[in-house]
Design goal:
Length: about 220
């Protein structure tokens, strides 16, 4: 994958995420991996909706920077690419309602989806990773217990992370999580989310297994 190809795709992603209000100012970072041992990642300190095209850095999956000034959270992307052989794209963003759940309900270990069929079918479950300080090895280490099984997860009191076999799949993960968070927050205001009957939950989970690993 050339720098130009990666830059075009990641710049479009920056515009899209900013328009959806999933990013503010220089927040977030996203990456694309080629068939080898390197990936392209958005540069540090850049407003990804305003600064177009987005400057990129090239990084090896062992963390060595080959060019540019990568995001301070690059090691988190390295962790995904090392643990998940199928991963070709990673998106880290800050969807407001999703993050708000982890702030208001810090005791939660996952965004409860047993009342919402589409979330079960599309992602299976949405775990909430315990809080870790942004940037550095601590944040990267916090996601390791959830890899490679989880392709979409909440970073407690911080943001969201999704990976996929394509950039579109990673985006699906971010959108699915925020959509579920908004629906569940609305349900709470209307009297509380009510779980589906257990037989229906079991059927949905079995159907999810049939659909495969990808985020839908």
């Amino acid at each position: 994958m050339t720098r130009e190809t990666a830059q075009a795709q990641l710049s479009e992603m920056g515009r899209w995420l900013s328009q959806k209000n999933y990013l503010a100012a220089a927040d977030g970072n996203f990456s694309l991996k080629d068939e080898g041992d390197t990936f392209w990642i958005t540069a540090s300190g850049v407003n990804k909706g305003y600064r177009q095209p987005i400057p990129l850095a090239e990084v090896a999956i062992d963390g060595r920077v080959r060019s540019g000034e990568p995001s301070s959270e690059t090691e988190m992307h390295c962790a995904v690419f090392r643990r998940c052989p199928k991963a070709r794209a990673v998106i880290h963003a800050h969807p407001p309602t999703l993050v708000a759940w982890s702030i208001a309900r810090p005791e939660l270990t996952e965004l409860t989806c047993d009342s919402f069929s589409e979330a079960i079918l599309a992602v299976g479950s949405i775990p909430i990773v315990p809080f870790a300080r942004p940037g550095g090895l601590g944040l990267a280490g916090s996601i390791l217990p959830f890899l490679p099984l989880s392709r979409a997860m909440v970073l407690g009191r911080h943001g969201a992370l999704a990976w996929g076999e394509t950039l579109e799949e990673a985006l699906n993960g971010i959108e699915r999580m925020e959509h579920a968070a908004i629906i569940l927050a609305t349900a709470e205001r209307l009297g509380g989310a009510k779980a589906l009957p257990q037989a229906e939950i079991d059927w949905l989970k079995a159907r999810r297994q049939e659909l495969g690993e990808k985020t839908l």
